[in-house]
Design brief:
The complex is a heterodimer of chains A (121) and B (109). Chain A is mainly beta and 121 residues long. Chain A is globular, with a radius of gyration of 14 Å. Chain A contains no helices and eleven strands. Chain B is mainly beta. Chain B has no helices and eleven strands. In chain B, a hairpin with a 4-residue loop joins strand 9 and strand 10. The chains are: A mainly beta (121), B mainly beta (109). At the A-B interface, strand 5 and strand 10 of A face strand 4, strand 5, strand 9 and strand 10 of B.
Amino acid sequence: QLQLQESGPGLVKPSETLSLTCTVSGGSISSSDYYWGWIRQPPGKGLEWIGSIYYSGSTYYNPSLKSRVTISVDTSKNQVSLNLSSVTAADTAIYYCARDRKVPRIVFDIWGQGTMVTVSS
Amino acid sequence: QTVVTQEPSLTVSPGGTVTLTCASSTGAVTSGYYPNWFQQKPGQAPRTLIYSTSNKHSWTPARFSGSLLGGKAALTLSGVQPEDEAEYYCLLYYGGAWVFGGGTKLTVL
């Protein structure tokens, strides 16, 4: 059974870079059938798609975050990583990774449990 | 900036029927936007219910259905159960970007 697990620092200082990892178990991240996405949710607020990546490294990002976001994949470790630079308090959120199936177009059918990141000095 | 709009809140009686909608600031929602619907309960990750407008997952209860209605994507719950009380989010595709709606808080009362 496929499982996703986010990990990373729970506290990041303003202006620094937030770095998270999503480890996929029970399946290969190198499958040509899937993208892998990052979504976040500020406390008490709605969901925001951050970006997605294909195993080949092809990415697509939320235009509003594109200048600060880098998503990468490490197929040897079965991991997807998220870097968000120049963070502010507005980046405080639960960060989720999720699977995104290409065909049929089934988006975010499996999610990690999420990891809370607080931006504060 | 593209905005996806949902009703902020709706209330329904147990056993009743309710329709949640999802509108796009760019115009009518079509199947090309691949409308998706997610359910989220407090303290949990979202769970997908509907993909590509009207397709259900194996775990989606039969009382949930998706459609296009009056230029919007719609999620209809028929025979609402108390456990359906949750936040519901739609998700639309804009040619390389996904945009979530603001969510609808559904109260079963």
